[in-house]
Description:
Blueprint lengths: L2 E5 L9 E3 L4 E3 L13 H10 L2 E8 L10 H17 L6 E5 L22 H10 L7 E4 L2 H10 L2 E5 L4 H9 L6 E3 L2 H9 L5
Parallel strand pairs: 1-4, 1-6, 4-5, 6-7, 7-8
Antiparallel strand pairs: 2-3
Amino acid sequence: MEKAVFLDRDGVINELIYHQEQGIIDSPFTVDQLQIICGVPEAVALFRKAGYKVIVVSNQPGVAKKHMSKKTFEAIRQRLVDQLISKDANVDAEYYCLHHPQAKVPELKKVCDCRKPKPGLIIKAAGELDIDISKSWMVGDGLTDIQAGKSAGCKTILIGKEKCELCRRMEQENAKPDFICENLLQAASVIKNGAKP
């Protein structure tokens, strides 16, 4: 069986965007807004060199909330892949949850097993790609990523800085990561060096 690093997308691979009209920080809503975070291609290359598959697992409710069309979502997704490939940072697979419980698009309005914090995306990817979850990692910038990874049986890394309020929420929601790193490149170093939680 293979081992993998499962990556959340927005805030881990690409920058989050402040959308002034809506007053929210969210995923890019247009292709032009997509910007890869510095150090990400190098991190992806390090994961692959260490023998890990690299798999994107991400909640993407932008279409469901009518922030973008399905065509725009696909264009953003392709741009991300193309930008990573151009820097020798290939991902092996991508798994997205497009659903949302309060979706404005009726066919995407549902409570599903694939939306993190549920582990459905990780479990589906592991089954389809013959991955040993117990030897794999989930890396994300939110507690829902950590909860999904823990529920699936992965080791976990939270991207961000530890704050007191966040620590309290980690305890309350059983979402304490194995490690906290400032960025994906630092996470790659932890994983490559065989850190044991």
